[in-house]
């Protein structure tokens, strides 16, 4: 295995000609990245449950993408990491993180980098406690990608962007690797700024679309006041935590979304999956409390979403919309 750059701590800027990459959680995001890295000539080992691993070993990862077209990439697959790798992508949902990490024994990871692409701001501390401070590279990804079946990925956004947080000289090889595979990748110096920019954008989108069971178009037209209030609260917390989020810029990004765009939290709610409420909403509230930032609407939304949903607690207008069949999955 050819190791250089971030794996040994030198200042090389060219990535290895071939990396061995583990992907923990080959779902919408992990499956897309696994396929792109495999297509770029790297050895990819997907780590998943036996059913998904079996499908990946036999059929590979099948991608249908607005950005990359349709292609199938061969990957290896296992239920646990059994050898040292150069890089481990952590792309599970935050609700499954603790259980998923059992698939990656630290002694098998060796000195490979850990690249978490999860929602929220608190997971880097969990991963650093397990794998070491230097190995974990905080990062965020901007993409809309969904797993429709084991190994079948629908990539809906015309972009795939990753921001890595850390020293340019150390992370340049990793950025070059991802960029060469087709992912628009930047290296930024400030971890708090990177993570909080994503959460300040994601939290209002996730909470409101999930609470009202509406895509962003319905929120923009029917719940604009609440959207603006949540954005003001989220960006205030972000700034208190070292982020640079601007409320007007966040709202402008929402206004540019196709009206049928849904948050991943809304998709989880529709599918009956656990919500990433702790990583997104409660993490925002914990930070608000630490810094004395008032966020009452965020607190109400998080509280209500944490309760079992019944017809009696359905927000006004949401149930009627759910029956309309206007949303695209």
Mean pLDDT: 90
Domains, number:
2
Low-confidence stretches at least 5 residues in length (pLDDT < 50)?
1-14, 318-329
The number of helical runs is 14
| Assembly state of the chains shown | single chain
* Helix and strand sequence: EHEHEEEEHHEHEEEEHEHHHHHHHH
Structural class: alpha/beta
Summarize the structure.
The chain is an alpha/beta fold and 329 residues long.
Which key phrases capture this entry?
disordered C terminus; alpha/beta; N-(1-d-carboxylethyl)-l-norvaline Dehydrogenase, domain 2; Rossmann fold; 329 residues; 5-stranded parallel beta sheet; disordered N terminus; 2 domains; 4-stranded mixed beta sheet
What report would you give on this structure?
- This protein has helices at 28-39, 50-59, 97-101, 106-109, 123-131, 168-180, 191-212, 216-222, 224-240, 247-256, 264-271, 277-291, 296-305, 318-324; strands at 20-24, 43-47, 61-65, 69-73, 76-78, 87-90, 113-116, 139-142, 145-149, 152-155, 161-165, 184-188.
- The chain has 329 residues and is α/β, with parallel strands linked by helices.
- The chain folds into two domains: 5-189, Rossmann fold; 193-321, N-(1-d-carboxylethyl)-l-norvaline Dehydrogenase, domain 2.
- The strands form three sheets. A five-stranded parallel β-sheet has the order 5-2-1-6-7, with helices on both faces. A four-stranded mixed β-sheet has the order 4-3-10-9, covered by helices on one side. It has a three-stranded mixed β-sheet with strand order 8-11-12, with helices on both faces.
- α7 (191-212) crosses α12, α9 (224-240) crosses α12 and α12 (277-291) packs antiparallel against α13.
- The radius of gyration is 20 Å and the shape is globular.
């Amino acid at each position: 295995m050819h190791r250089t750059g971030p794996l040994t701590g030198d200042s090389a800027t060219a990535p290895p000609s071939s990396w061995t990459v583990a992907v923990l959680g080959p779902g919408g995001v992990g499956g897309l990245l696994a396929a792109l890295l495999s297509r770029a000539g790297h050895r990819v080992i997907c780590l998943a449950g036996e059913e998904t691993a079996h499908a990946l070993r036999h059929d590979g990862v099948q991608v249908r993408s607005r950005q990359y077209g349709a292609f199938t990439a061969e990957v290896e697959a296992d239920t646990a990491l059994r050898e040292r790798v150069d890089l481990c992508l952590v792309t599970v949902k935050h609700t499954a993180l603790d259980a998923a990490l059992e698939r990656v024994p630290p002694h098998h990871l060796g000195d490979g980098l850990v690249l978490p692409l999860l929602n929220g701001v608190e997971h880097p501390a969990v991963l650093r406690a397990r794998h070491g401070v230097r190995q974990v590279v905080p990062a965020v990804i901007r993409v809309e990608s969904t797993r429709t079946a084991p190994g079948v990925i629908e990539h809906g956004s015309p972009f795939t962007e990753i921001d890595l947080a850390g020293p340019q000289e150390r992370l340049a090889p990793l950025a070059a690797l991802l960029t060469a595979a087709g992912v628009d990748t930047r290296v930024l110096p400030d971890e708090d700024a990177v993570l909080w920019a994503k959460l300040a954008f994601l939290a209002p989108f996730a909470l409101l679309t999930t609470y009202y069971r509406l895509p962003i178009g319905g929120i923009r037209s029917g719940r604009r006041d609440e959207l603006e209030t949540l954005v003001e609260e989220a960006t205030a917390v972000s700034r208190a935590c070292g982020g640079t989020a601007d409320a007007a810029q966040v709202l402008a990004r929402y206004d540019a979304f196709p009206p049928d765009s849904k948050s991943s939290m809304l998709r989880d709610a529709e599918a009956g999956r656990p919500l990433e409420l702790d990583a997104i909403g409660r993490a925002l509230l914990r930070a608000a409390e630490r810094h004395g930032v008032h966020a009452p609407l965020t607190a109400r939304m998080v509280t209500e979403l944490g309760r079992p949903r019944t017809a009696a607690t359905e927000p006004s207008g949401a149930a009627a919309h759910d029956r309309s069949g206007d949303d695209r999955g």
